[in-house]
Amino acid sequence: xxxxxxAIKRVSVTERKTMRNKMVKSATKTALxxxxxxxxxxxxxxxxxxxxxxxxxxxxxxxxxxxxxARMARVLNKAE
Length: 80
Description:
The protein is elongated. It has one domain (5-79): Up-down Bundle (Methane Monooxygenase Hydroxylase, Chain G, domain 1). It has helices at residues 5-37, 41-56, 62-79. It has 80 residues and is mainly alpha-helical. Helix 1 (5-37) runs antiparallel to helix 2 (41-56) and helix 2 (41-56) runs antiparallel to helix 3.
């Protein structure tokens, strides 16, 4: 455990950010699983929104978000 006041604060801030990142990443994974189970336009829109939100919060990179959305669109187009 750190002794310096600023280091103590950094530990608590890091814990809060880690918790938020886990929550956002978990919600994103859930949306992606729902899309994989029922590939439809509605689930694609919800999953894309979740991925975009994760990218805007910095949990995943913009490139990773675009890659995931492109893969989902490809799956949906192939299914139709």
